[in-house]
Amino acid sequence: MSDSNKSHGRKTIHPTLVPRELMSDRPDLARAWMAQVITLFPEAFPGVLGLSLTGKALQDGKWQLKPVPLREFGEGKHRNVDDTPAGGGAGMVLRPDVMGRALEAARRHISPAAPIIYLSPRGRRFNQKFARHLARTPGVTLICGRFEGLDQRVLDHYGVTEVSMGDYVLTGGELAAQAMLDATVRLLPGVLGNADSIEEESFSNGLLEHPQYTRPATWEGREIPPVLMSGHHGKIEQWRRVQSEEITRERRPDLWDAHKAAKRGE
Ligand SMILES: C[S@@+](CC[C@H](N)C(=O)[O-])C[C@H]1O[C@@H](n2cnc3c(N)ncnc32)[C@H](O)[C@@H]1O
């Protein structure tokens, strides 16, 4: 095998279950971390979550994924889920009675300690700290909005936490839900093969990660920094630390200031 063809510790997975089967009821997994996703598009799941490490973990029962099809809780023959905004204006709003029924049904199958989160551009910004927090809960019920969003009364009535993926507007909450679940599931015990990589990666210690290199040693005339080829672990660690600090200082002054304050014990 040539250098360029070598795998460097990546896991190959051979799923034996198709995505739908991975998401079906498995009573044997009653205590596995549970993600419920209320959505108008259940077919969007597991999506990328069915691949690679998160897919393998789903297959191994380290977590469970239950899409809750909002349409099934809709009104009347056409299963309507939305209506025009009170007070007028563009678009449609998801009805509180429809979402209420979906939530009541979903919450019967999850620990009351699992938070209810509405993916929303108005919410608190999702970050690694929040992913770590979620990974320590028994699971989560995610509400994916569509159209102009969800009737405020549902959020108030159930004490729903609004969480944003960033300062931009997506068409619906499904992509945001998948990003949030991906970041959380990889932190669950036993999901990532090498726990060290969680400790070293960006944000784990408040810093961005150092640059990474792999074979070939020279590419397009560019060398791997010699210290990384030296075999001297102390020097490698020190080089990575300095790189990590420089990159954080340059790219994210906000993180750098927080890191320095944490070091001073503020
Ligand atoms: C078109 S957006 C609604 C935007 C809403 N009218 C507003 O201005 O805040 C439809 C749905 O996409 C989801 N969404 C859009 N942007 C998001 C973001 N940045 N983070 C999380 N969810 C988002 C939410 O669930 C939202 O209800």
Structure notes:
This protein has 266 residues and is of the alpha/beta class. The protein has helices at 19-22, 52-59, 96-107, 128-135, 152-158, 174-185, 195-200, 233-251, 253-263, and strands at residues 33-39, 63-69, 82-83, 93-94, 116-125, 139-144, 161-164, 218-219, 222-223. Helix 4 (128-135) packs across helix 6 and helix 8 (233-251) packs across helix 9. The radius of gyration is 22 Å and the shape is elongated. Strands 2-1-6-5-7 form a five-stranded parallel beta sheet, with helices on both faces. It folds into two domains: 3-185, Alpha/beta knot (3-Layer(aba) Sandwich), CATH 3.40.1280.10; 201-263, Trp Operon Repressor, Chain A. It is built from nine helices and nine strands. Mean pLDDT is 91; it is low at 1-16. The chain binds S-adenosylmethionine (SAM). S-adenosylmethionine binds at residues 119-122, 144-146, 148-149, 164-166, 168-173, 176. Residues 36-257 form the tRNA methyltransferase TRMD/TRM10-type domain.
Task: Determine the number of helices (DSSP H or I, runs of at least 4 residues).
Answer: 9
| Number of domain units | 2
CATH architecture of the largest domain: 3-Layer(aba) Sandwich
Largest sheet: 5 strands, parallel
